[in-house]
Design brief:
613 residues; alpha+beta; eight-stranded mixed beta sheet; six-stranded antiparallel beta sheet; 20 helices; 22 strands; 19% strand; globular
Amino acid sequence: MKFSRESRQNAIRRMQDRELDLLIIGGGITGAGVALQAAASGLETGLIEMQDFAEGTSSRSTKLVHGGIRYLKHFDVEVVSDTVQERAVVQQIAPHIPKPDPMILPIYDEPGATFNMFRLKVAMDLYDLLAGVQTTSYANQVLSADEVLSEVPGLKKEGLQGGGRYLDFNNSDIRLVIENIKRAHYDGALIASRVEAIGYTYDEAGKINGVQAKDRLTDEEFEIKARIVINTTGPWSDETRNLDREGEEEIRQMRPTKGVHLVIDAAKLKVPNPIYFDSGHNDGRMIFVIPREDKTYFGTTDTDYQGDLKHPQVTQDDVDYLLSAVNGRFPDAKIELSDIESSWAGLRPLLAGNSSSDYNGGDSGKLTDESFDQLIDSVQGYLNKEQSRDEVEGVVANLEGSLSEQNLDPSEVSRGSSLDIDDNGLINLAGGKITDYRKMAAGALAKIIEILAEKFDRHFRAVNSRTYPVSGGELNPDNIEREFEAYAQIGVSQGLKADEAYEIASLYGSNAPKVFQLVGQFEQDERLTLKENLMLMYAIDFEMTLTPIDYFLRRTNYLLFKRDEVDALVEPVLDIMAQEYDWSEEERAKQAEQLQAVLDENDLIDLKEGNEE
């Protein structure tokens, strides 16, 4: 089933001629998760996104499916337990997306250190217990200082006490969103990108019964009627719920923070595994350095943000901070601004006033000494087979801490989520982490189904979202490599090189045969390889890719992790899309100009030119 510009137009038309059960505003990971579950449960579902899918927060994360070991700095076990359980669910329903990538955490003797060696060992053992991997090959390992240096050549030696290795997973945040969206479309949801909610419609009781929408491609305005409307717009959550509140007191609950990541060539700094370390600035932040393909990227910052929500930017201060932190840990790397190939800045949709857990290692509270001792004894008792897991969890559930909700730094704001219903009936699902998206959506859907039954006499049964696969996820997660190899053989039989066929198989999962089937169905551009031709045509016909920016930045990793290949692809991609979409010369020039602006921003051209003056 195609998911294209034509299906977008069809969705816009069909959303106007019926009353939906549910209209979702926002096409990031939260909205995508709600759309999948609602459509699979039989609800007549619509989704509109004012930009491209995942264009905001959901394409700008650290690109990991965390277990959340950082939360164990203060032994916030409930969060870690939920996180590792949800990570396991994502592995089952989207097995082609998250991939195991053990993390190394070095420990330095310095002020403000997140962990010492003892606390790290306890945290890792508790983490493995919660994740259920303590007896597998992924069980944690304590590393001596020499072992850490052997694992991570070039790491700073002074003050290094040792470290640990524990299980984590890399992730393609963008692919997780689009695969949820595609499954929802396959199950009947009406979905359109670049359609903005500009107001609401109301029934006689003053309750929202639809949305006033604007097609941002044509400027056409129209109404979409729905029994229930849910706001899943992430950092825009406050703006969306206050659309029609002129003259009324606005509702405010979001405190977005900005996070920045920078990409360099692996030849400049090569790491064998993701590394996670204290910034060295005694500020409570921790920094990731992560290998991806032939690149290395690092981040993140955590700073309060009050600027343009659509366009957070990387500043000189952001660059200086990250280069100082990474060069401090890898003193021989000597990374400079000129070494940065790509970058991104994103906003986290954090909830203000909720300090149950920090995102990036900030000090959100301390355990009492008594509680800490109880926890240590309990975990050691479990490891010595003297206590059961239930007994450990009982101790965990009763830990006493002193958590203050006042005057938190940006890196200390909770990553919790909230589900609220405003007086006008608008449902708001906000906050959370990418790892938690399915659980958040399930909670929202339960409330939506309840309201539909009570107020509209429409009855539905929620799909079991713990086992329902996303598009491309119909694979055996326990034998994923063999699955990829089998699909790759189909690609090889269609004329692809083995490595290219495997790349497509691992990117698209069980949709790979659909990609391979495109061979011979269109005229190939000789300036592109067969793989590149296939990926572009699949993106246009099956992933609602409307611009070259959508393709390079949010359907593939080219702009972020293959920047050195992009320039040669720009003209053929523009030509193919111009032909497919019948662009005029003026429209093609406009698309080229917009793409170049994104490339310049990605490359930090303004900062680099400013430093040359």
